[in-house]
Design goal:
It is a single chain. Strand 2, helix 2 and strand 3 form a beta-alpha-beta unit. The protein is 46% helix and 15% strand. The strands form 2 sheets. It has a 5-stranded parallel β-sheet with strand order 3-2-1-4-5, with helices on both faces. Strands 6, 7, 8, 9 and 10 form a 5-stranded mixed β-sheet that branches. With 272 residues, it is α/β, with parallel strands linked by helices.
Length: 272
């Protein structure tokens, strides 16, 4: 007999991606409208929520025995579902270790603990490979990661950790440990100028990163990344959801940018 919840509503993308990766997608009866990974989920599952809102009535019609969400931002949705008789799990992890542990816990919850452990171990091996490659880089760039532009919001903890793992030094590590986005708002954007990043990575949740707008900010022409044209988009579905995407394609995208930057600097030294 199949164990664990049989009718799961995923209020964010990471439980959907994880359950598909574990072969447990038949348990999913509803997903977030922001889900893009895996692509077949959008074709196969009804979309019943955004991030800050949900079609609670539609969710209740699906008769879920579990809803899975993320963070305080979904607390009101969770409360409404609980009042409707639905069991809810709101995960609140913010680190790379937390992502790996989340995958293991979700697997155990649906009776796929061994598969989840094997999958998580494979993800860790992939991260180890990236860290080994990064250790061979001749120089670590300073990296500014921007999660939103107006107001500027710096990167969350798992992003900062993945930047470090990929060979860079994220310039706001003291902000990365803050769990809430409002605590990572830059009141004075000129602080970026003072910290002089070599690379700027933008991942504006839900809209396209505009490097020309960043470069045009007053005083930012002095930033090495702007001077050298090192402004790059990391697609938000790859890095801003704390699930498999961030520790696979997301970190690889960051590592590719850092690797190209390092190779270009090495070339400059050879010509010098």
């Amino acid at each position: 007999m199949s164990r664990g919840p049989q009718r799961i509503v995923c209020l964010t993308e990471e439980p959907t991606e994880t359950l598909y990766a574990l072969g447990e997608q038949d348990r999913i009866v509803g997903i977030s409208g922001f889900t893009v990974r895996p692509p077949q989920a959008r074709r196969e599952k009804p979309k019943v929520s955004a991030f800050t809102s949900a079609k609670v009535g539609e969710i209740l019609k699906l008769k879920p025995d579990l809803a899975i969400g993320f963070s305080d931002i979904q607390a009101d949705i969770a409360a409404e579902l609980v009042r409707g008789g639905v069991e809810v799990w709101i995960a609140n992890h913010r680190s790379v270790d937390g992502i790996i542990d989340y995958i293991r816990r979700l697997g155990a919850l649906v009776g796929a603990g061994q598969r989840a452990d094997a999958y998580a171990d494979g993800l860790l091996r992939g991260l180890d490979d990236i860290a080994r490659e990064a250790a061979a880089l001749p120089r670590r760039p300073r990296v500014y990661f921007e999660e939103w532009d107006d107001p500027p919001i710096t990167g969350i903890r798992w992003v900062s950790e993945l930047v470090a793992l990929a060979g860079g030094d994220e310039i706001f590590p003291e902000r990365a440990i803050e769990p809430l986005a409002k605590q990572r708002i830059l009141a004075d954007a000129s602080e970026v100028v003072r910290r002089a990043p070599d690379i700027i990575l933008g991942s504006w949740c839900g809209k396209k990163f505009r490097p020309e707008k960043v470069a045009a900010r007053p005083g930012w022409e002095a930033v090495p990344a702007v001077r050298d044209g090192e402004l790059h988009e990391i697609k938000s579905p790859l890095i801003l959801q704390p699930g498999p995407a961030a520790v696979t394609d997301g970190v690889r995208a960051i590592a590719a940018v850092i690797g190209q930057w390092s190779a270009a600097r090495a070339g400059d030294r050879c010509r010098g």
